[in-house]
Records
---
Amino acid sequence: MSKFTMRVLVTNPELIPLFAMTATVCCMAGSYIYYMAAKKPDIQVNRWNNKLSAPWDVVDPTQKQKLMTVSQKYNPDMKLHQLRREINYAYAPNK
């Protein structure tokens, strides 16, 4: 297989659009990566010295974290309970 030279493009002009599109796509992909890294605030490039990190990224391992409430008191909504009862009676088969 021969190396790529300008002579290949001169002898095979049908390859010019292929190489042009490949170069264009590579440039666009590189510019998109640069845009995402430089302009988007949700990307962290420096993980070890980032002063503006989100609060869930910095968790103190000595502090207890509440993940779930086990004994939560349930207070039923009486209007909702009444509405459910009316709907059940409306769609119940007549006996």
---
Amino acid sequence: MAVSVSAPVLPLCFHQSGEQSSRLAYIQQKRLSPGRNSRSSIGFGAEKVRKSRVRAPVCRAVPPLLFKDLDADDFRHPLDKQNTLLLRAIPGLNEFGKALLGSATEQIMLLENIGTSVLVSKNQLSDLHGLLVEAAEILNIEAPDLYVRQSPVPNAYTLAISGKKPFIVVHTSLIELLTRQELQAVLAHELGHLKCDHGVWLTFANILTLGAYTVPAFGQMIARTLEEQMLRWLRSAELTCDRAALLVAQDPKIVVSVLMKLAGGCPSIADQLNVDAFLEQARSYDKASSSPLGWYIRNAQTSQLSHPLPVLRAREVDEWSRSLEYRSLLKRANRISTLENV
């Protein structure tokens, strides 16, 4: 049975302003088919319900939980903690990067994204803006800028430039592929990078490695030495940010569905994909790689990747959703208050 993460029929929509509207949920239900979304259906008629106050959040059966006192270490993955300490222990890493590159490459990356994308705001793709603002409020973090960029490759990434406001970039093909709930989970994942100060490390890592390869001998040796450690850190950081996505989605199947679609989804078959079957696939991968030969192949398969395999990320999300650590965070959280009258 295919798993649908679309909103149930006629739930109440809970907005950050505290409003409820079953009418808004009805409009969304009419425009969204189960498990699918298209770029044209990002908006779902929010203008019909007090346009000046609605931020177009995800419709939920109950208002979302807010983590007002959330600290990054509350959800940081153990491997992220370990590999971050190892990176910080490398002598002269920050100084070398700054001396090698200065601010020129950072500025190039900033202007490249600003010049080729659409900046999301209250007046530009306001529904998408509402998803970001709600996710940031749940995670207790200031919302960064958000850009939408035309690309056939489903992707989203975060850049934190020194002295400038960080920003998230989402590709149009990713918007086409995901439901609203899944898209908000992606935004939450990227916010997780900022919550954990990954943004600066992500940008720095890419620039440092690229810059080191452009100088002879010494620079190339440093780049090769750093590459394995840096990729190991990047993979562990992704596991942390998948947890941030779960804290916002508050349903593990939504986050797992994102990973499943990135592994093998497209808009035409999205409503046929099955989250439970994908989790079973993850368990079978663990079993197949448990032998000495399987362990070696698995390490060879993942050692040069910046992200863990989707099936392994799905398994991690599923396991953490059933952990005492996650349940403890939910108990500490507060629900958005709602008006007594609709």
---
Amino acid sequence: MAEAVANVVRRINETIEDGNDALDLSNCKLITFPDGVFKLLTSVSDNIRVITLADNMMKSISSRLFTTFSLLRELDLRGNLITKLPEIVGEMEHLTCINLANNKFSIFPDKLTEIATLERINLEGNGITEIPVEKLNGMPALKWLNVKANPLDSNTQSALQSPHNFETEC
């Protein structure tokens, strides 16, 4: 455990010292996004545009992540145990790409359809049966949706076969 904590601190310090706009905490054995990270990154949170938390063991994401890093453009949460996103995700005004592949979603995170800037959604390898295709069609920036390896019901599969404004992988 001490090694995992040291790895997280090292990566955060590198981000701060190098003035990076990306924070990569993938493969850090995280169960949650550590509160200490918010404190350490207070001075540079407005500079962070990309956060990668892939391949950890996180079951949920704190709404504080979205309020602290409000200028976030890309969020990679693939390979965790997440079942839902906080409501505040719908208020992310700059988010263009979210990767939620290989998590534990059984319901499509509806709040994503409220993000006008969102271009790419990856939900491959979850347990989702229904997709709100009409709401997705109303998203002005959406270009790509990946819902491969989900147990989509027949109505959803049919709806995804119809022409729409975005490319679909299912």
